[in-house]
Amino acid sequence: MIDFPRHTAETAPGQAGPQLAGIRKAWGFIPNLHATLAESPTTLQGYDMLFGLVGQGTLTPAEQQVAFLTASRVNACEYCVSGHAVLAGMAKLDAASIEALRAGTALPDAKLDALARFTAAVVEQRGNLSEAQVADVLAAGYGKAQVLEVVLVVATKTISNYVNHLTHTPFDDFMAKTLWHAPSQHAA
């Protein structure tokens, strides 16, 4: 297996060092994903910017986590599903919804379930959805801006999910209680 380094603020190349220092200050530690992304300062910056932009949108923190978890599950990203399960709890998403998202089953809340189904369809169909699929999420109470924000979430998760697949990013300690293993990756 090709080994990708996990950088610290002191070992990271270029502008990734100061960026990792900022991440450490904000989070209290440097997640392994960010430490790995730092090998390419521009990729780290791109991911961090997109993640920050999602937070500036109109989806609530819980809705953001529904979309993040859904995209990560569909992409079979064990690291991101494990991490976003923690972040979803911090965003006040209930445990039943978090487990449904991890399992790919219906959520107890109809509006959040519509968002999860829409996000999964965007990932699976690479944005080639029917008008009926878009109309369904709009009818559930989301606006056109939020439809586009789901695409931003998917773009953000595409970076992290694919990087984690390519580099085999190890789980962080904070994920110990939420470890998730993709069924498709570990079929008997």
List the helices and strands and how they pair.
Elements: H1 16-27, H2 32-37, H3 41-55, H4 61-74, H5 78-90, H6 95-103, H7 110-124, H8 131-139, H9 144-167
Strand % is under 5%
The stretches of 5 or more residues where confidence is low (pLDDT under 50) are none
CATH superfamily of the largest domain: AhpD-like
| Global geometry | globular
End-to-end Cα distance, whole Å, is: 22 Å
The CATH architecture of the largest domain is Up-down Bundle
Mean pLDDT: 96
CATH fold name of the largest domain, please?
AhpD-like
The share of residues in helices is: 55-70%
Main sheet specs? none
String of helices and strands: HHHHHHHHH
CATH uppermost class of the largest domain? Mainly Alpha
Number of domains: 2
How large is the count of helical segments?
Answer: 9
Q: Number of DSSP strands?
A: 0
The protein's oligomeric status is single chain
- From the alpha-carbon coordinates, what is the Rg to the nearest angstrom? 16 Å
Pfam families: CMD
Protein name: Carboxymuconolactone decarboxylase-like domain-containing protein
Domain Carboxymuconolactone decarboxylase-like: 49-107
InterPro entries: AhpD-like (IPR029032), AhpD_core (IPR004675), CMD-like (IPR003779)
What are the main properties of this structure?
single chain, 62% helix, 2 domains, mainly alpha, 9 helices, Single alpha-helices involved in coiled-coils or other helix-helix interfaces
